Amino acid sequence: MHEDLLAVAVDAARIGGEILTRLYGSTDLGAEEKAKNDLVSRADRESETAIVAHILGAFPDHSILAEEGGHQPGAREGFEWIIDPLDGTANFLRGVPMFCVSIACVEHGRPIAAAVLDPLRDDLFTATRGGGAWRGSTPLRLRDRPGLDGAFLATGFPFRAHGAIDTYLTLFREIFLEARGIRRCGAAALDLAYTAAGVFDGFFEFRLAPWDVAAGSLLVEEAGGVITDLDGGDRFIAGGNILAGLPGVHRRLREIATRHVSEALLDRMVPAQGG
């Protein structure tokens, strides 16, 4: 199911990954700020150009939503590719080896095929809706835990949502006091892939972009995890507010979040980009 889409996603991720591997460590990347603390470089642009060209070569009538190039409408309604050509740009530019390529094909807003590639380690995560999630050739199936006791979590600091930092820190504090540990790796798509693989038991963050979330969300779901917005709904791709993890871990994250924040409250504090 959706294997033709997945094959193109994987090939495109590897094409982008080869560019990132070649440019990693370069001192001539022309980095600049798109917005405060939101960086773009030649690596992002070259990777995206090559990825988009490969996808449109296979599906010329599909739409594209990519981090650097924005939205490119296609002739075929309902199919869109959501692309992050370099998730973890700040890490990449500083020589921190935690970054990835993230690609999802979405049908009417719902991811149906996904690939996340850590090119330095050749670590590939894939999923199709109804077809399961995989790390390389190994199928991913999560084992549940009842709550946050002993849980190992990932998060990301909400650099796009400074107006909600106090709320985030209140949430972080309560989760931190229950969990075994929390890590901030700096690449949300990779955090979600690791959650699907059972490296992390859960993940939470505010105001991510669609390209940070689309592929990783399918990985989590197909591995047997749960991913929702702050209200337990399905607005997480559009709104970028994420609670994800093992079912029991997600349940506890949601209980804690309910005491401190909601989608409506966050919309008042920091409106979602584009709406």
Task: Describe this structure as you would to a colleague.
- By secondary structure, this protein is an alpha+beta fold.
- It has helices spanning 3-23, 42-58, 89-94, 165-178, 188-196, 210-222, 236-239, 247-260, 263-269; strands at 32-35, 38-40, 63-66, 70-72, 79-87, 100-107, 110-118, 123-128, 132-135, 138-140, 152-155, 181-183, 202-205, 226-228, 242-245.
- It is globular, with a radius of gyration of 17 Å.
- The model has no long low-confidence stretch (mean pLDDT 94).
Question: What is the compact description of this entry?
Answer:
The protein is of the alpha+beta class and 275 residues long. It is built from 9 helices and 15 strands.
Helix count, per DSSP?
Answer: 9
> Radius of gyration over alpha carbons?
17 Å
Shape category:
globular
Q: Major sheet: order of its strands?
A: 4-3-5-6-7-8-9-10
- The portion of residues forming beta strands comes to 25-35%
Q: What structural class should be given to the helix and strand makeup? A: alpha+beta
Count of distinct strands:
15
Percent in helix: 25-40%
Main β-sheet description? 8 strands, mixed
Order of helices and strands: HEEHEEEHEEEEEEHEHEHEHEHH
Amino- and carboxy-terminal Cα gap: 34 Å
